[in-house]
Structure formats: C-alpha cells, structure tokens
User: Which sequence fits this backbone?
C-alpha cells in the first residue's frame, strides 16, 4: 500500500465511531448454595465460538462456518484450554474444576459454547472465594470476563481484565450485614439530599418550640412541651411513610411517580403556609401522618432506583427505612436545641418561622409547577 | 431526589428491555445435528486476507520479539477493523504489540499504532501524546500528523487541526493536502468554497488511488448534505460507493442521508446483511421503523442487547449511537436518557453528528438549556448546516 493511500485510509477511519461489533467478552456465572450446611458451588461459562476459533481453531474445514459437529469434536480441547486459564480458590485452597457438559447459546454477537462447571472445594463452607481469570489474556488484551456471582440470594457482578486478573469475594452471613448497612447508608443519604422531605419536616417542626396565642407565635415555656410536640410529629411522619414505603416496595400499591412527586411538593407548600396562617394548630402530627403517607411513596421510588436484591428484599427495605429515620433524627437533634434556645427572639419568631416558611412555600410551589407540568427551572 | 424520580420511567423501561434480552438469551440448547451452522466467521480460511493474517501470526508466534513482523501484523489487523468495524481485531493488534505496549517510549512505528488503537476507545489524550512524541522526533511522520488532524477534528480543535493539516500537506499527495484543509474549512464557515476545492482537486487527479478518492468523496457528500445541496450530495456518495471498497463509515453516512431524505426503503437494500456492524444495524432499524417492517422488532431487540452487553463490560464509547437508538426507536419516554447519553458524548466528541443528536435529544426532552454546548460550538465554529440550524431554531422556539 502506497504511503499516500495509506494516509487517506487512516483519515477515513478515524472519524468512524469506535463502535461496530462487540468486543470480546465471556460470561462467567457462579452460584454458591450454602443452604444445606456445606456449600455447593456450581457454575456456567459462556465463551464465544469466534474467540475460541481464533485461539485454538474450530473451523476444521476452513469454510468460514462453524458447525455443531466441528465444535463438538473440540469439546475436550475447549475445556482444557479454558480451565487452564481460570482458577477458583475457596479460603485460599484451590478448587478443582471440571466441565461435565457443553451446550450452545446465542448472545448478541453470535454463538457461544456454554460450559457447565462443576467445582469441588476442600472447604465445607468457605468464607471467601478468589477467582483468577486470564482467558485470552495473551491474544486479546481487550477481552473481558464478566462475572456474576450469586450467594445467599445476593447477586454481585465483576469485570475481569488486564488490570483485574484476580478478585476476591466474601461469602456467607456477613454479606447480609454489609447489605443492610449499605441500604441504611443510602437511606440516610437520601433524606439528606431529599430537600423536599427535609423542608416538609422543618415546616412542621419550626413552630414546635412556639405556641399560637393572641394571633401570633409566642415562645413555649417548657422544653418538655416542645420535646413532646416534636416527638409526636416525627413519630407520625415516620409511621406513615414506613407504611407506604413498605406497601409500594412490596408491590401492594403503585402510584404514578409524577402524581406522587407533585403531591409531595404540594404537601410542602401547605405545611409551610400553615405556619404563616395557622389553621391546624396543635394537630400538626396529623398533618405529618397524612402527608407522610405520600412521602413514603417518594422514598419507595428512590429505593426502586437503587435496585433491590431479589433474595433480601425485606432486609433492604428495613435497612433503607432505618437509614431514613436515623438521618431524620440527626436533623431533629440539630434543630430542636437550636430552635429552643432561639425561640424567644424576634429573629426566630418572625424571620425564621414566618420568613422561612414563606420561602419554603415559594420554593415548593416552583417544584409543584415543575413536577406537575414536567419542566425544569431549578437545578435541584 | 425528584431528579432521580424523573429518570424512573426511563430506568423501568430499560429494565424491561434488559429482561427481554436476557430471556431471549438465557436458554442454552443442544443443536439437533452436527451439520447445524452455529457461527459464520468474517471470512473463509482460504480468503487471501485471512491467509496473510495467519501467515503473519505464525511468523510472530515463532519470533514474538520481532518488531517488523509485529507492526506488520498489527497493521493488518487494524485494516480489518477499518473494513468491518470489528473491535475484536483491536485486541488482536494490541496483543501483537504486547512486548512494547507498556513502554513509555516505544519505537515510533509502535507508537503510531498504539495511538490508533487508543483513539478507537476514545482515549484521545493518550493517543495525542503518542502522536505528538512521534512528530516531535521526526517531523516527516505523515501518518502521525494525519492522526493528529483527525483527533483534533473530532474534538473540534480547528486551530490545531489546521496546523497538523499543514504539516501533512507537505508530505501527502495534493488531493489529500487539499482535502485535509477543505474538511476544516467546511466546518468553519467556508463550506461552499471547500466543496468546490474538493471537486476541483478530484477532477485534477482522476488517477488518484481509490481509497483516497473514497475519502474525499465521502467528505464532499457530507458537506453538500449540510449545505442542503442534496442532488450534489447524492452524486458524491454514489461515486464513492461505485469505487467498490467496503467502508462502514461511508455506508453509515449514505444511509443517514437516505433516512433524512425520507428514502428508508433504499437503506434496507443498501445495508442488507450488514447488521453485524452496530452502526449499520442502527440505520437498518431506523429504516425499518420508518417503514414499519416486520424485521423491526428483532433488530431493535438485538441493538438493545448489544448496548446492554457494552454496558456490562463498562464501555461508554457508544453513547452517540445509543442516544440515537433511544430517540429514534424507543420514543419520547426515553428522551431524558437519550439526553444524558448525547450530553456525555458531546463532551468527548464534537462533530456535526454529535451535535445533531444532542440538539434532537434536548428538543425531545424539552430541556433547551442542555443544548448550550452545541449552540456555543455552532457559534464559535460558524458551521454551516441546514439541519443543525433548523434544530437550533426550533430549540429557541421552545419555552
């Protein structure tokens, strides 16, 4: 190829988007069954026939077609080639691997051999699985091994490539705890970044250190009165949103997201305006309960977005809920002492309670419009 | 949090598609007869190209540290990528270069190839670093200049592109030299003049190599199309096709032209049996959608499965195609997702096609502000494109 031709060729290609077919992947799946006291590990490994043809040659007659006969004739060789490039250790001790049978499956980029993997490990119930993967490492550095590991109803995924040839996975009971903590952490995080929930709660809490007398807010005399008021509100909110969060997550009730989100915004507007023109004095816990039911649906959509583990749905639900409550209590713990100290001041009674509530109502009104009519003004 | 909720319907739909794709695949079977064909390879073993690849591969296996053989094999694999768009060959090429791949300053011949492979995965910074090192050492490395131009073009750095074009013009044929500058002019406010330059350069050099003509004609077709000179664009594309070189980029560009012209039936004919390439499968599916042909469902499911597979391995180089897929095939419910993809893509690649999909996604999602980077680019470059200008206008009309 002449120089200039070569050049033209390159120019034509570089602008071509980098995607055409699919790069090479294999799909590796392990299932660890600890139910019977001792672990049973089974696996499946899907490897593309094209890749195997490139590595060890499957197209015996060279006609460009790989037939079942040609593949079957190479089954032993395929298994030997693949198993030489995969190692599984249970608690640091090598497991022996064998391939009792091979089938065929079609993936998006063609036919794959499907190897059933039988594992026998010395450890009765291993705590840790180490997987080393170097299939095609020498002939295609772009190749990836995509792992799906299922144990105790928990599915994990991992990618093996040149930078990650060996990975460790912890099995067994600890995973439940980790999972619980993970979801609890998400719960805390989502109450903190969920401005609409915080503002709703704050709207209800702002007057908790005050009493409505002679048409205006006055400082409440005792901390215990305020404390009881706050406890009533927070408990009502918690009970209510726990109910709907559970019902929605377990699939008992489903409401359209846009409706829920709009109604949540409306609840913030109403709760805030109730501080400026109180109509539901002293019965704010009922407001917290009623609208709390709505907010529960909002939490449920976040939880659905996070993805739920099939085998540990209830665990995730409780974890997430506990997280939400913890995050909420943290907010209350900061708010209550501060508000109680400031409650006699003009700053608190007028600026924070009245001004703040008006501001919250205005903000929530924009949310309401955004969500109801599906457009965007604010960045959050 | 309501932002997350906005994405919910999108997420839910993708999930259903996922499950569908999984359901289609998750059934290993035992074929009924030994004669059943499971896989069709890109070429027969007797194909001269395959023979040459096999010869080189055996030679390299015998002497893996032989630089000349390794470079020759990697180049041969790379030309397979160019013809068929099959990314597996990228990995094979990288493997051929493995003794030198991790070096900080490998020989120039390896460095140029490494850059070519890196840019394929959109690692533009690393690729440019290699190319610039090569031309710093030797200003006469024309190929390294050509690649620098191409990467600067993709990133809309027209000043740098012009500079490397000038360097390249010293070393290449007049046709390539003229074409290189003209392609930049065509994006920076001199499209009509650029088209004339290309047409005249072609006329002056009728004996130019076919690959060279292909490249110039493809550019010309795109420029005329942007200018709204559809018969001229058609003529350029058809002349390029008549050169009889299989070129995925040209096929995709002409298919897009036909789709825009409301001629989807011709796309089905043009790309018949070429669905192996995702780029072309996308065009096939868009044409099938326009005609409502029965093949649509299968192609759409296939594309969804391929995008899912790419996501599984953590790839993000298909954002433009996936955005078009979401917009054109999945419909308005996926607008938010399409916009996210188009925006991420435009942060990396800034060619007219990248701009267009972001404008279209912003329109569909009714978020005009998301198209700001495109409008800024259009203003800065003074690009002339009827389609982009019409979309931008439409966007202004949107509240």
Assistant:
């Amino acid at each position: 190829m002449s120089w200039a031709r070569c050049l033209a060729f390159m120019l034509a290609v570089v602008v071509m988007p980098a995607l055409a077919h699919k790069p090479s992947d294999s799909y590796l799946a392990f299932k660890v069954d600890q139910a019977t006291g001792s672990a049973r590990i089974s696996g499946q490994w899907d490897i593309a026939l094209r890749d195997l043809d490139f590595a060890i040659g499957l197209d015996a007659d060279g006609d460009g077609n790989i037939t079942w006969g040609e593949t079957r004739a190479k089954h032993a060789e395929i298994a030997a080639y693949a198993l030489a490039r995969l190692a599984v250790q249970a608690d640091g001790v090598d497991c022996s691997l064998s391939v009792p049978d091979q089938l065929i499956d079609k993936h998006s980029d063609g036919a794959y051999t499907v190897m059933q993997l039988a594992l026998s490990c010395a450890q009765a119930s291993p705590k840790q699985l180490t997987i080393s993967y170097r299939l095609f490492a020498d002939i295609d550095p772009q190749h990836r091994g995509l792992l799906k590991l299922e144990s105790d109803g928990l599915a994990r995924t991992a990618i093996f490539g040149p930078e990650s040839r060996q990975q460790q996975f912890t099995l067994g009971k600890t995973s439940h705890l980790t999972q619980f903590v993970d979801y609890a952490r998400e719960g805390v995080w989502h109450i903190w970044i969920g401005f609409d929930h915080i503002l709703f709660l704050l709207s209800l809490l702002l007057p908790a250190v005050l009493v409505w007398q002679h048409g205006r807010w006055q400082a409440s005399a005792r901390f215990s009165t305020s404390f009881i008021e706050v406890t009533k509100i927070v408990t009502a909110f918690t009970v209510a949103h726990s109910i709907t969060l559970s019902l929605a997550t377990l699939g008992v009730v489903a409401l359209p997201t846009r409706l829920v989100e709009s109604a949540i915004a409306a609840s913030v507007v109403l709760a805030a305006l109730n501080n400026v023109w109180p109509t539901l004095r002293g019965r704010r816990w009922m407001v917290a309960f009623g609208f709390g039911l709505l907010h529960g649906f909002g939490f449920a959509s976040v939880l659905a977005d996070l993805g739920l583990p099939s085998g540990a749905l209830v665990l995730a639900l409780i974890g997430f809920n506990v997280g939400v409550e913890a995050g909420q209590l943290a907010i209350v713990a900061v708010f209550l002492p501060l508000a109680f100290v400031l409650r006699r001041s003009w700053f608190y009674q007028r600026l924070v309670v009245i001004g703040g509530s008006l501001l919250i109502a205005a903000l929530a009104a924009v949310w309401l419009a955004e969500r109801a009519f599906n457009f965007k003004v604010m960045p959050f | 949090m309501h932002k997350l909720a906005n994405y919910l319907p999108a997420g839910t739909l993708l999930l259903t598609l996922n499950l569908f794709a999984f359901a289609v695949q998750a059934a290993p079977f035992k074929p009924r007869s030994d004669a059943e064909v499971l896989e069709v390879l890109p070429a027969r073993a007797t194909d001269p190209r395959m023979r040459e690849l096999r010869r080189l591969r055996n030679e390299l296996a015998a002497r893996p540290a032989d630089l000349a053989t390794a470079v020759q094999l990697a180049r041969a694999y790379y030309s397979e990528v160019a013809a068929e768009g099959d990314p597996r060959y990228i990995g094979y090429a990288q493997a051929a270069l493995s003794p030198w791949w991790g070096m900080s300053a490998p020989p120039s011949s390896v460095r140029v190839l490494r850059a070519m492979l890196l840019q394929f995965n959109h690692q533009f910074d690393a690729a440019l670093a290699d190319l610039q090192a090569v031309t710093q050492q030797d200003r006469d490395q024309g190929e390294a200049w050509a690649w620098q131009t191409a990467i600067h073009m993709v990133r809309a750095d027209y000043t740098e592109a012009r500079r490397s074009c000038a360097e390249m013009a010293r070393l290449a044929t007049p046709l390539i030299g003229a074409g290189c500058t003209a392609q930049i002019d065509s994006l920076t406010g001199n499209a009509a003049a650029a088209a004339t330059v290309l047409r005249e350069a072609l006329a002056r050099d009728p004996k130019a190599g076919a690959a060279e003509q292909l490249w110039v004609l493809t550019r010309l077709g795109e420029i005329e199309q942007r200018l709204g000179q559809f018969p001229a664009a058609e003529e350029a594309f058809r002349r390029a096709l008549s050169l009889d070189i299989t070129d995925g980029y040209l096929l995709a560009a002409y298919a897009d032209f036909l789709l825009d012209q409301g001629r989807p039936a011709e796309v089905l004919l043009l790309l018949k049996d070429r669905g192996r390439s995702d780029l072309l499968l996308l065009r096939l599916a868009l044409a099938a959608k326009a005609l409502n042909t029965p093949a649509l469902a299968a192609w759409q499911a296939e594309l969804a499965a391929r995008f899912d597979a790419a996501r599984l391995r953590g790839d993000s180089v298909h954002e433009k195609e996936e955005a078009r897929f979401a917009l054109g095939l999945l419909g308005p419910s996926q607008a938010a997702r399409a916009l996210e993809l188009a925006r991420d893509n435009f942060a990396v690649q800034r060619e007219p096609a990248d701009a267009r999909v972001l404008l279209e996604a912003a329109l569909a999602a009714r978020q005009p502000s998301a198209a700001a980077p495109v409008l800024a680019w259009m203003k800065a470059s003074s690009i002339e494109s009827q389609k982009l200008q019409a979309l931008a206008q439409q966007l202004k009309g949107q509240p």
Q: What stands out?
A: The domain at 176-373 of chain A is CATH 1.20.1250 (Growth Hormone; Chain: A;). Chain A has two domains: 23-172, 176-373.
